[in-house]
């Protein structure tokens, strides 16, 4: 039993402690309510003038009394039943219907002011035209007005402090909307925006003016273009064209819901929608507002929905989404459920302002509670029937200031968020929603009371996977030769250099071989050395600042030009010198002995190199090369919405054109002259000059490739990869083909005759040269003498033939008998003269030499043939009469060569003809 007593005492002690603690907390929370005298059932009425409308305004849909009555009843019940707020008072609303008319609004206000029941404050209304007049009158009557739905920006203007000094609003207004937009733009780093505004409605034009001024002056956001349109002119198309011309990608819209569908329909026509554009418009609190106007628009619902996809809307929060408990010890969700339970259609429609009505009444109650507590602390008791009847304006002004001060100092949790005022405006919550997948989704929120911006990024579905840019971003990109291209070219160059080194090794190792020795191996070494240098220039052409520093790149500019010029001069200059030697030998009209040694060829190449050194040294001294950056034409990347400004590196000097003209001009003349020499010696194929034909082909190859390569390099100089590939391939191709033409025949010959240096080669001169001994190998030191002797031999043969013919006619004149035959033709009267020739005499001048028959021994001549010379007007008659002579003589004339010359009988006939006739199977026994 004793134990049970101790237990009971302990439980009672704990219970008493909890009660005392709870009372202390409540006392602190309720501002010493326990000290206020209170008689249950005898509460003092505290009247509030309410201005609700039975008519709905287009800008405040749902703000009618019928839709807000459940919220009013819930709020009054919670306030009057709360143990801490207005203890001993009963908050009562006296409602007047303004019908959203200024006249009715003013009448309602004056009626309330003249009633015996004095009003502590005015609660309402929703219609801007009514609020504007009532707010100015309330300031004159020293009455505080708190609106639950007004968000017009004129109440936040500079003149509002004087005109609407006592006007407050519980719904978030212009300030929170402005801050929410600015924070939203900053979150995505959008610093360039365009704006389109309905300028015949001050609700939107004033807000846009304040917004553009604030972001340009304080937040560094540039306004690309602003266009206004009116509901009467509907000049939306011109405005959107202007925005599109300015390339505005982030568009801020301010217009009524009645015009929003028309704006987006025109945006669809102007193609101002899609992943590249972002529209930010006011929140209309209607998820399907766009469906009601589609029948009056030139676009379909599908097109309008496509234009709306992805736009953002900023609207005040209807009900907070967290679980914070408010003064009535309810959560926002619990209150919302209670409101929905009492608001049943058709008499009540869900209103977006019901939470602000609830928090607005609590605001007045809390302010009154603070005012009453302040008076109690001063030893005064607040009696509305007496205190509010004082006609002294100073006293009423003091009450006004006291109530305003109480409202300004409020800070409590409401169903719409934390309630806090700054310069007569509620610092509330602005919710950011996005239209995606044909409905609105909350993606962020701005809390003005806490100055906190929250964005639910995971809820935003960007069409391109990322937020669009505020404009086509200009990106400067330095373009380099691709590594893959550079490595491929370096690999090809490495292979070609190894091939050239192999050819150089062969050329040096077999330099004493007859075939190699006759082709001037020392000059061939220069060709290979020049080829290696041109190969190396391909590597230098691909090096840029992505691999070396800018200083080293400037040095590489000079190295590129020097190495390529020297390589070209060594390779082509050596081929040019060898071609010139062939041309000099075969174009000596006097056939003097001319031996052109290799040192002369080296001298030619040295002179060409000296010219290169002079030009390049002058260029280096006067105007050294430096690295420069060239801006290429701007490119637009449609996929990433970027404006790319590519740049390339190049070697620049002030006199580039001058020195390039000198080099190209000098090299061009060089190429043209080399091509001329190759053409002049195109038919030469002399064993002593065994590679002259291939050297000529190499010259053609170099001329063609260099001409095409220089032209293409100028055309593609801005396309760095393409230009590098083409120029490199031209250099590699030209150099490799040249080496192949010059050295592959030598390699083949060495493979066939690598052991025997004394080989018999077929030799031929130009087309006018006769074939000489096929088995004799000419020495290169006597080839000029042989050519000269061949020509002299031909001249002597012609002279010997003429002398032999004259001697034959003189010595054998008696042995020759002439037979004259008269022809039967009167027109061609003449005669035939038949001349018999015997012996080994040479034929008459102009006749053909004796030839060998098939099968005859070498050097043995055919036996003498019987030849006749027949002169007369007709070949057929001559043959017939000759046949007759043969039959009469009985001698065989088979194989006899007969030369017939027509001699005209009259001087008027010209153009004598020589006709050769071979008479077969006719014989002559005696010619006398």
From TrEMBL:
One GO MF term, please?
G protein-coupled GABA receptor activity
Q: Give the GO terms filed under biological process for this record.
A: gamma-aminobutyric acid signaling pathway
Subcellular localization is given as: Cell membrane
Q: Where is this region: Disordered?
A: 837-892
Residue ranges of the G-protein coupled receptors family 3 profile domain? 492-751
Specify residue ranges for compositional bias: Basic and acidic residues: 849-863, 871-880
Q: Which Pfam families match?
A: 7tm_3, ANF_receptor
- Alphabetized CDD domains for the sequence: PBP1_GABAb_receptor
Q: Signal peptide span per the entry?
A: none
Q: Does the keyword Signal apply?
A: yes
Its GO CC terms are:
G protein-coupled receptor heterodimeric complex
Keywords from UniProt, A to Z, are:
Cell membrane, G-protein coupled receptor, Glycoprotein, Membrane, Receptor, Signal, Transducer, Transmembrane, Transmembrane helix
Q: How does it sit in the membrane?
A: Multi-pass membrane protein
PANTHER family referenced in this protein's UniProt entry, alphabetically: GABA-B RECEPTOR, GAMMA-AMINOBUTYRIC ACID TYPE B RECEPTOR SUBUNIT 2
Instruction: Kindly provide the name given to this protein in its UniProt entry.
Output: Gamma-aminobutyric acid type B receptor subunit 2
Query: Which species?
Result: Trichinella spiralis (Trichina worm)
